[in-house]
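pinging the channel bc i need a second pair of eyes. not urgent but kinda urgent?? the chain im working w is below, pasted from the shared doc
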Amino acid sequence: MAAMPASLPPLTVLLAAPRGFCAGVDRAIQIVELALARYGAPVYVRHEIVHNRFVVGRLEALGAVFVDELDEVPDGAPVIFSAHGVPKAVPGEARRRGLFYLDATCPLVSKVHVEAERHFEEGREILMIGHAGHPEVVGTMGQLPEGAMSLVETRRDAETVAPRDPRALAYITQTTLSVDDTAEIVGVLRARFPEIKGPHKEDICYATTNRQEAVKAIAPRAQALIVIGSPNSSNSMRLVEVAERAGCPRAFLAQRGSDLDLESFSGLARIGITAGASAPEVLVEEMIAALSTRFRVTVEEVRLSDENVQFKLPRALTG
């Protein structure tokens, strides 16, 4: 890459690591790509495979067709369920119609589903900590009959929830929540209901935790912080909140390099960049390239941990 003219103002980019794709997102995208290669286009996908318009657009260009519900899938066409998981009624309907389906649910979300079923079978009422309407929450609550699970979104909810029997109670959580917010809510629940059962291992996934810790490391040093991600991406939105709480005076979400108001960075010496778990690295490179048109950019990667998690693909695509 050619050297930038010295007349450009200097700007240091603190690049958080880990960032970007997690193993569950990578697996889900591979499932769509492999299904297209094996079965040919079109392959239908119920809901966005992951919450990123760039990723969805690229898969659409390859022949994936994204739909809201199964009634939009023609008989005989293969269909894939998104990484966020689906209510039990969805594969049930696919089987009833004789549709061939592949489940791209992140294995860490599936783990939460299994926990919920175990608690239900052992007679416990379940509190789910999460955000109303998020596909992961809809999918998890849809694993059990109506009324078996109640949603707790805030500390206030935790302070006022009234279970039927406090001695037969458990909690589970959405995998993409703020680690600190969730710990606060769990603390309230444990104080109110000392016998409440929690997960053997925290439900918030390793990737969410690692990306939040990386942001905490750079936020106090950054005068502004860009989180690359989509507005409907829970883990990306949480990174904005984490950055603000960790001392960054300005943190915001941006989807593409073209979204940046480059003038707004004038006079700044250091900014941070990270990417949500469903944002590909190419968008990080695009963001830095956009900044480089107006600044002499120096990139300093701040790495807190390495990730080497991989999840197995469905046997139907590897056999």
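so The CA atoms of residues 12 and 270 lie 5 Å apart. and The chain has eleven helices and twelve strands. — does that match what u expected or am i reading it wrong
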